[in-house]
Design goal:
Layout: H1 2-34, H2 36-63, E1 69-71, H3 73-113, H4 116-141, E2 149-151, H5 169-183, E3 189-193, H6 200-208, H7 211-216, E4 219-224, H8 231-241, H9 252-264, E5 268-276, H10 282-285, H11 290-293, E6 300-307, H12 310-315, E7 323-325, H13 331-342, H14 354-367, H15 371-381, H16 387-397, H17 413-424, H18 429-439, H19 449-458, H20 468-475
Parallel strand pairs: 3-6, 3-7, 4-5, 5-6
Antiparallel strand pairs: 1-2
Helix pairs in contact: 1-4, 2-3, 2-4, 3-4, 8-9, 13-14, 13-15, 14-16, 15-17, 19-20
Amino acid sequence: MDWLCLAKAAGNAANETCKPIILDKLTECYSYIKNYKENKTLLETKYDLLTIAKKEIDSSVEHEVDNLRVPKEGTKRWLEDVSKLMEEVDERLVKKPKDDEERKGRDMITCLRRSRCNLCRRYDMSKEDKSKADEIDAIINRKPNDDVTEPVSRSDLKSIPNEFLKGLRSRVKLMEEILKKLRDDQVKAVGIFGMGAIGKTTLVTEISNHEEIKSMFEEIIMVEISEAPNMERIQDQIAEKIGLKLDGMHSVDQRRTKLYNRLERVSKLLIILDNLWAKLDLSKVGIPEPNKFHVEPNKFCKILVTSREKNVCEAMAISKDNVFEVTPLDYDESKQIFRARLGAKIKDNDWEDTQRVKMEKRMLNRCGGLPLAIVALADVLKNEESLEAWEHFTSELEKPMSNSLAKFRGVHRQVYSILETSYKLMEDEKKKRFFLLACLFPFGTSIPIEDMMRYGIGLELFENVDNLIKAMEQANR
């Protein structure tokens, strides 16, 4: 009798203990079955958000390629995880619905008597959708911050072939003269000057990637200086190149001291100050004076400056013997760049047409030997192969220049003329408005696609777009 009572009591206790668990499980199952469609919609929405997040990171990485920066390890792992998860979700959203349709006919017959088949499938799929949606939330929360790239290791750098320098006699000769000065132990600073769009930045970029220069210096740091230099921005550029953190330091003096102490530890240092408009006090930035490095054996710092004005180079205490002018290209060199940039768009036999060659000469004369103008011209004509289009563009290019040019300081007439003409001939009004929108960003800014997307939505530049994915795709064109 005691054993029966004990068994009954145990059974009651087990029933009371298991009842909530069973009820919770049943409630969970019912919730998945009931919310089958909602969970699928949730997964599709989360998938769209993940796609946008991935495109933002891909865009950020792509924008930094030209600055010799590569994705950080954390960024690489995140992108790999995202790609893997997106493949799994694609499998669920694309392939499985097709399989369901194929099964539907069979299930209609077999499951009339056993409706639990459809319920079980709904439960499984709804649970999987919710699980994948939660995974997407988690991976979006792990999205890397704004600093998704890092400077490429100097050991990984290779000489970058450049169409502006390859085979151009004037540029090859000038580059050799500059390299000779940089090899000289007695030369502490070298200056390069020339008009805007003449190719100074291209030249010093090629020099910084020259194998001999990379082996000569322990650190090579190239900094873009604007017309109105911002000291903090300059310091940030240098710190970023050498992996120095200045986060939380708002005092220019504190940043200068930390930067100076870090650079002073470099035995062989080359600082390239690109696009200098006026004398820059190196000590205020945190750059060690080159002459102080020469006091210690096997330790030196050299400065390479580019400017539009010769007197700016001289104001930086650069000897006249060490200042070089970048001059316009001659006609043969201009033609070489122009045809190389056009590539295979214009076939070899097309250049046998004397009319095309004459128009080429007329347009290149308008470029004035400026590489940037020549490249801009070639880019405009890449998709215009007909002689009629070339003639129309040539005629437009030779028209008197707009008076609005006088408002812009530092914009070369030839470059402006080509840009203005190509804008006038742009048929797509939406592209025109995007072009003007991009012009509002500061010089040298890398424009995030997501920003263009948001502005495009606000300005109603998109047509027939009902979601963010389509808007981003149009903004990225």
